[in-house]
Design brief:
Length: 294
Amino acid sequence: MFNAAARYFLRFGQQIGQQFLKQIGALLLLVGLVHSTMAFGQDSGEAQSGGQETGEAQSGEARSGEIRILAFGASIVEGYGLPAADSLPVRLEAALDAQGFDATVVNAGVSGDTTAAGLSRLAWTLGEPYDLAILALGSNDMLRAVEPAETRANLDAMLTQFTQAGLPVLLVGMYAPRNLGADYVAEFDAIYPELAEEHGVALMPFLLEGVALDPALNQADGIHPNAAGVAVIVETMLPFLQPLAEQAVAAKGAAGSADSTDGSAAQESSLPAAEADEPPRDEPPEPGLERAND
């Protein structure tokens, strides 16, 4: 798995270096493979983005018993180059439903997003209610050779916001291109496992596990998965995500029971004091009988 990732990013990194030596414009075009327009928040094809919900779910109140999962990431989460029906959030939602979950996976992927861009939009994204989050950012940082310390700080801040919101998180990792140097690679690759341990969140080590370097599973750019590649990502991600979904269901059920108990207690306490505390009354005399002292 690690060797495949290394070859994948080494090949891509070498291409970047060659194009840079030719001309800056070619480098920009190559980096643009990650998102052809470099416009944050722009939809790709029919894919939904920027916090829109997938499937038939709409903004507002969730269905009874439903868990809402925030898929927060960049182009692969958004569904770059794919119809909406083949995007990762939609396919993941279908897989969870097949496992018996009443799940809505919200597509909050924006092509080209770095961790800095993700951090800048996370607070308003969390204005909607969610039960669980998937955090898959950082690939655009390493493609731009952003300092790992900056990437780490941004991911750390996002994980803190998720914790403050009470959300379980699946952190999805990425590996750095080998041509960026041993120091950069070691520092970047350590970000995800270290943060997962520090924040106590689940970790999927590599987003493109089983997909990188396989032409049959990627689009023509060799970077973004096609529909078959998305299916592999879903299959790989599901074992990491399912325990968190079960945890979210249990937490929601416990919260519902607590609300029901609190509601019953509130109803009882709302009785008038006189009615609640009044001692038993004497039975009235039978008709036609007088009290002894009358």
